[in-house]
Specification:
The protein is α/β, with parallel strands linked by helices and 735 residues long. Helix content is 43%, strand content 14%. Among the domains are: 157 residues, Rossmann fold; 279 residues, Rossmann fold (3-Layer(aba) Sandwich), CATH 3.40.50. It comes from uncultured Sphingopyxis sp.
């Protein structure tokens, strides 16, 4: 998807596109087999070095013609993120290069695939550049590649493209190629260790011209050494990024998240059950290795000398160790390239965050229990989860995370949205979205998706609501009644298409008949066991979106008003992940069971934001908004309502108090002010005459019980950029 793609329409059809498409062509393997620890294609993990190299090359043919600060600015708002695609060798025969998008680079790492790519290149009228780790005629060795090789090739590509289609408007591309200049190089001030924990930040800095010398000194076992190195490099990236924040372009295309948080993990069932390696003496060393992985807390696998000797002497154990090394290496560079594409800092967390799952399970159990009604006990349990997460992260990395100005991207399975930052869970303190680390192939597909999707507020006027609750269900009418109550507020700003479904076929038909951008599902969700597959209940049937994803047309935005659609204590096979695997750009999912009435209120307020809020804030006097911001603001206001609504109902505050606190919160969250929660809490404390300690305790209880911490944004909501034509005209665009 290109950097100028929009829902329902493509870029101008007669303008030659400047983007460079990097195809990482992986060896042919069985597409139904995946690596055992995270679920990557075996072939793709061999290509990590290719992905690592992309950060040193331009993202489009305009980039080398621009000043380095302009290049950095285009990174920050995602306009110049790299377009790269993992492609199986057997699939390239179906690809064809057009004059409209002619700038392609094929990358290979093994002899058989390189030869296949050579044969395919020979069939193309506009041949791509071939970068390979294998020597061969017509290829450029990976270790020798420089941007000038791309320039030489792309000048020839440009001429061939113009011969193929002389009607193309190529002025922008021609000017870029004519003014192409070597990227300035800035030596970094000190040697850096060559370790996975620092590679993503090096990639971000390499993307804007920094060069590094690898240190001879290795990082030792102490996790504090790793944290200091990560924090120092992350601070350097954030400082480089901050120099771009005066760009006027950000009014129409806001900056992307400035911090990526990564935490490689294992499939959830491995933490509980192991890997199923052979029993007896034959599998002794392999089982010991898996136990080390299960118990890992820092950045290195630690074990006694004899255990390591047994592993190093064992073929099965060494095979597993090599697989795990390649899994982590590939995830590191894939997340690193995504972060580098937006000049973002990366905070790599220690494995201890994945060992907080015991506290997470306890929180989940309490949230599902009818007996767990005490706000104080629920707050205590949630506080224990937060403590475990914060303890694992450490103060130095918490400081870096707290410094985020434009949002946080999680690449993790652990519920890091609950990490405590400035008195709030991270997911409410900052604008946060998440890509799960398992299954690995889905993770890579989502990380590789970098093209911005530009929408106007009009794209949100048509909304599909699928009601899948049986008529006799006690909660079947709650959302529909709530929407009817809010309809006078919506007016004619939105058109709600409400479809009641009772069967699998009706569910499929409702989705496939809808051409809009937003679908809301109202129903029950379920997810049994750590190795089970999540389902949605449609009428009396349980259906899995994993089984349907090739049969249904999935809109770019999916809102799941259902329980456990991204369950915090279950397997990777969640309903939210299934929608993402089927093509959704982003899904709002639930970590825990949600209250039906609260969920209905959240949906009603979301529709209001689409009907009234979006047109207002993205208009002539406003700015463009990312979808991630829209949802984050909604969740913050939901927390405010959970604070003040019970007080109004109990008569503890007046309607005027309620209105004043709510309006101030709307203004503060819209203006991206940090004090929205503290201001509301202080107002309540002043009205009720509470001491600071009791007010803080009340705040913790409200947070722990609120559905605002149960919902999370998954996928890539920040890629959806919402702006009005009035705003663009005010910025001088001729539309």
């Amino acid at each position: 998807m290109s950097a100028s793609a929009s829902f329902g329409e493509g870029p101008p059809p007669r303008v030659m596109r400047p983007e460079i498409d990097y195809f990482v062509v992986i060896p042919e393997d069985d597409p139904w087999k995946a690596s055992p620890f995270q679920g990557f294609s075996f072939g793709i993990t061999e290509a990590w070095n290719l992905v690592r190299a992309v950060a040193s090359l331009p993202a489009d043919v305009l980039e080398p013609a621009l000043p380095i600060q302009a290049q950095a600015g285009r990174r920050t708002n995602g306009v110049a993120a790299w377009r790269w695609n993992p492609a199986a060798a057997y699939a390239i025969d179906g690809l064809a290069i057009s004059a409209f998008r002619p700038f392609w680079v094929m990358m290979t790492c093994d002899r058989s695939t390189a030869r296949k790519v050579d044969r395919w290149i020979a069939s193309q009228a506009i041949p791509p550049l071939h970068i390979s780790e294998i020597d061969g005629r017509g290829r450029i060795r990976l270790r020798d590649i420089e941007a000038r090789h791309l320039l030489d090739h792309f000048r020839e590509t440009f001429e061939l493209a113009m011969q193929a289609d002389p009607t193309l408007d190529s002025r922008l591309v021609r000017e870029g190629l004519e003014k192409w200049a070597p990227r300035p190089t800035f030596p970094f001030g000190r040697p850096v260790p060559g370790h996975n924990v620092v590679i993503p930040n090096l990639m971000s800095l390499e993307g804007v011209g920094y060069a590094f010398i690898e240190s001879e000194k290795l990082l030792q076992e102490d996790p504090a050494d790793y944290r200091r190195e990560i924090a120092e490099l992350a601070d350097f990236v954030l400082n480089a990024r901050s120099l771009t924040y005066s760009s006027l372009a950000y009014r129409t295309t806001p900056p992307q998240p400035d911090i990526y948080i990564t935490a490689p993990s294992l499939y959830s069932h491995i933490y509980k059950e192991g890997l199923g390696v052979p029993s007896g003496k034959r599998g002794h060393a392999a089982r010991a290795l898996v136990r080390m992985m299960q118990r890992q807390t820092g950045y290195r696998l630690l074990g006694h000398g004899k255990v390591w000797r047994d592993i190093l002497d064992d073929e099965i154990a060494m095979g597993l160790l090599d697989i795990r090394r390649r899994e982590v290496s590939f995830q590191t560079v894939a997340a690193g390239l995504a972060a580098a594409g937006t000049l973002s800092a990366t905070v790599r967390l220690p494995s201890a965050v994945n060992r907080a799952n015991g506290s997470v399970r306890q929180m989940s159990s309490h949230a599902r229990s009818d007996q767990m009604r005490s706000p104080r006990k629920l707050a205590k349990t949630f506080g224990e989860v937060q403590f475990r997460l914060a303890e694992a992260v450490g103060p130095e990395l918490l400081r870096v995370i707290a410094s985020s100005q434009t949002g946080v991207k999680l690449v993790a399975d652990a519920p890091l949205e609950w990490l405590p930052i400035n008195g709030l869970p991270l997911g409410l303190c900052k604008t946060v979205s998440r890509i799960t680390t398992t299954p690995g192939n889905l993770q890579i597909g989502l990380l590789a998706r970098t093209g911005l999707i530009h929408l106007s507020p009009d794209a949100f006027r048509n909304i599909l609501i699928i009601s899948a609750l049986a008529p006799e269900d006690p909660i079947s009418a709650i959302l529909l009644d709530m929407i009817e109550e809010w309809q006078p507020i919506y007016g004619n700003q939105v058109r709600l298409r409400i479809v009641k479904v009772a069967t699998r076929g009706e569910f499929i038909a409702a989705l496939n008949a809808f051409q809009g951008a937003v679908m809301i599902f109202d129903g029950h969700g379920g997810h049994d066991g750590a190795d089970g597959v999540a389902t949605l209940r449609v009428g009396r049937d349980e259906i899995s979106i994993w089984d349907l994803k090739t049969e249904i047309r999935i809109p770019p935005i999916v809102i799941l008003s259902a329980c456990d659609t991204q369950a915090a204590d279950r397997s990777h096979a969640t309903t939210a992940n299934a929608f993402l695997a089927g093509g959704a750009v982003t899904v709002l999912g639930s970590l825990l069971p949600v209250d039906a009435r609260d969920a209905a209120m959240l949906v009603a307020r979301l529709i209001w934001r689409l009907a009234e809020f979006l047109p207002a804030v993205t208009g002539k006097d406003g700015r463009a908004h990312l979808w991630s911001e829209v949802v984050a603001g909604m969740l913050r206001l939901h927390l405010i309502l959970d604070l003040i609504s019970p007080l109004l109902k109990a008569g503890s505050i007046t309607s005027a108090n309620y209105h004043d606190i709510n309006v101030r919160a709307i203004t503060a969250t819209t203006n991206r002010e940090d004090n929205w929660w503290d201001d509301a809490l202080h107002s309540v404390a002043a009205i009720l005459g509470l001491e600071p300690e009791r007010a803080a305790e009340m705040g913790r209880e409200v947070i722990a019980a609120s559905d605002a911490i149960r919902y999370i944004q998954l996928g890539n909501p920040e890629l959806i950029v919402i702006k009005s034509k009035a705003l663009l005209r005010d910025e001088g665009y001729d539309i």
